[in-house]
């Protein structure tokens, strides 16, 4: 026997996130890969060129890459 409770079903639908399509999940994954590659490339650039950057610029770029 199943008991129906309208208040329970309203609470359930109010907190549930809309399901993302397969294409949207694919694009999200693609963007995440690109973001990680860009962060890795920036970190490598900072490691290899730290002597040619001013301290202020290097610290600002490192701060931005951490967030």
Task: List its traits.
67 residues; mainly alpha; 3 helices
Account of the 3D structure:
The chain is mainly α. Helix content is 75%, strand content 0%. The chain contains three helices and no strands. The radius of gyration is 23 Å and the shape is elongated. The chain starts with 5 loop residues before the first helix and ends with a helix. The mean pLDDT is 80.
The termini sit apart by: 52 Å
Rg calculated over all Cα atoms: 23 Å
Helix content: over 70%
Please tally the β strands and state the result: 0
Q: Point out poorly predicted stretches.
A: none
Q: What topology emerges from the helices and strands here?
A:
Layout: H1 6-15, H2 22-49, H3 55-66
Characterize this entry briefly:
With 67 residues, the protein is an all-alpha fold. The protein has helices at 6-15, 22-49, 55-66. It is 75% helix and 0% strand.
């Amino acid at each position: 026997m199943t008991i129906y409770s309208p208040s329970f079903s309203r609470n359930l639908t109010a907190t549930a996130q809309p399901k993302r399509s397969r294409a949207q999940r694919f694009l999200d994954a693609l963007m995440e890969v690109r973001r990680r590659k860009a962060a890795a490339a920036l970190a490598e650039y900072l490691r290899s060129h730290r002597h040619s950057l001013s301290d202020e610029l290097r610290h600002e770029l490192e701060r931005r890459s951490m967030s």
